[in-house]
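Thread amino acids onto this structure.
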């Protein structure tokens, strides 16, 4: 790794350590006894859905660990392949295990041409790349003979395929939507470099490849976020891994979740210049608009991933003027939002705030930002779905009914002929 990137990551970790210790929050780590008492808020706030050994988001203090390893250390020392192995299999691989796993991922990269044929039939101009990815993975599932085998071992094999093939699909989508042919994956490139190659058609320089690799490490897992939970809910009905992951893609697509990274970039472009940040934010706050890339259900401290992505964006901003301008706008918005809402409401930048600047500097268009997130997060989705499958119980919460408790049924009162709910549909 370049010394510059290592220094930057070490500095980010040092600053985080200076601000807080990493003691787990009371009640959020350690032994679990079911049933448990919790205080619940809307949107399952406060709900404990399961126990896990995969990862822990220390929201109060702003720390993230995967299987006990701090994400700062993983960003400094690991690769996406190694991190995916860690999440899936529970421990860091030996040198040999990592080489075998990396070879397996390379071997699994190619996807059946039928998937590209289907992608070619999608109206590209108006289809969001996340919708294309959702469709592509669904088609992939129909072509995989082992899709319906449901042992943990078989589903783990599917998970490895998905991790390998998400990059291939994302690369293909980036090209097909502009009328270009998808490229064949490059066996001689690592996961991150191959992803960049498949998207841009150019072999990335080592600095860009390493920054993409760090981005993938940072996005690989993050507790019971909406898309991970969605994936687990679907898998808990003993549906297959493809169905589960397709649902995860649907959840990640939304602007309140993974889709925020794309929206942030549009906001930064809309602001145009750092001097415009203040009036822009005044208007956003006056209209009670949530600012994309800020706030988090769990983090009530600065997101450790943003602590890394911010300086990486700064590093890239030294290379060209357009990135520099976007970065300066982002810093001004970060400072102003944090000063207005940091102390009062514990609102800070989240992972999506700086990632778009990093990807844009790699010549990637905003529509592809969330698919890149998915390329990484598929490891966390699968790892957690597989862990849960080992001791499965279907997810099934309840809702409090607030409708009328008892209504008399009279066909004549609400029928289609007298202005009932189907009138418009019938005419
Ligand atoms: N901008 C301004 N105010 C905010 C923001 C924001 N981005 N986020 C939360 N707040 C405020 C709310 O207005 C609310 O204030 P109030 O108590 O005075 O009403 C308070 O903070 C709590 O907000 P909630 O909406 O209850 O927070 P919730 O946990 O439901 O939502 C979410 C979390 C969806 C991430 C929210 O912060 C948001 O919409 N952020 C912008 C979209 C975004 O960046 N999403 C990506 C999240 S990271 C990820 O998923 C990968």
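Threaded sequence (427 positions):
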């Amino acid at each position: 790794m370049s010394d510059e990137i290592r220094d930057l990551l070490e500095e980010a970790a040092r600053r985080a350590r200076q601000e807080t210790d990493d003691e787990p929050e009371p009640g959020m780590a350690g032994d679990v006894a079911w049933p448990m008492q919790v205080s619940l808020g809307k949107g399952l706030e406060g709900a404990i859905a399961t126990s896990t050994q995969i990862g822990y988001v220390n929201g109060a203090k702003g720390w993230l660990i995967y299987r006990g390893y701090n994400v700062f250390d993983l960003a400094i020392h690991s690769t996406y392949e190694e991190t995916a192995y860690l999440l899936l299999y529970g421990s860091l691989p030996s040198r040999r295990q990592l080489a075998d796993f990396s070879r397996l991922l390379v071997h699994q990269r190619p996807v059946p041409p039928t998937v590209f044929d289907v992608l070619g039939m999608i109206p590209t101009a108006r289809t969001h790349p996340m919708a294309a990815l959702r469709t592509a993975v669904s088609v992939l599932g129909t072509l995989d003979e082992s899709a319906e085998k449901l042992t943990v071992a078989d589903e783990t094999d599917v998970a490895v395929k998905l991790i390998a093939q998400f990059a291939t699909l994302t690369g293909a989508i980036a090209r097909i939507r502009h009328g270009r042919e998808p490229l064949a994956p490059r066996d001689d490139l690592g996961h991150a470099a191959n992803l960049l190659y498949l998207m841009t058609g150019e072999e990335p320089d080592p600095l860009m490849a390493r920054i993409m690799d760090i981005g993938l490490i940072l996005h690989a897992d993050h507790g019971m976020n909406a898309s991970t939970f969605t994936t687990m809910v679907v898998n808990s009905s003993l549906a297959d891994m493809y169905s589960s992951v397709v649902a995860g893609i649907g959840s990640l697509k939304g602007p309140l979740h993974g889709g925020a990274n794309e929206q942030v970039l549009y906001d930064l472009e809309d602001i145009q210049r750092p001097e415009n940040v203040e009036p822009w934010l005044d208007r956003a706050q006056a209209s009670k608009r949530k600012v994309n890339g800020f706030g988090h259900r769990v983090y009530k401290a600065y997101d450790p991933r943003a602590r890394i992505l911010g300086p990486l964006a700064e590093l890239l901003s030294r290379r060209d003027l357009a990135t520099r301008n976007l970065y300066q706008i982002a810093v001004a918005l970060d400072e102003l939002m944090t000063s207005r809402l940091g102390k009062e409401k514990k609102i800070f930048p989240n992972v999506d705030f700086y990632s778009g600047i990093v990807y844009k500097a790699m010549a990637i268009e905003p529509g592809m930002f969330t698919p890149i997130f998915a390329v990484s997060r598929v490891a966390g989705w699968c790892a957690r779905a597989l862990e849960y499958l080992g001791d499965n119980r279907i997810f099934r919460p309840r809702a409090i009914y607030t409708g009328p408790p008892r209504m008399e049924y009279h066909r004549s009162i609400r029928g289609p002929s007298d202005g009932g709910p189907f009138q418009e549909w019938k005419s």
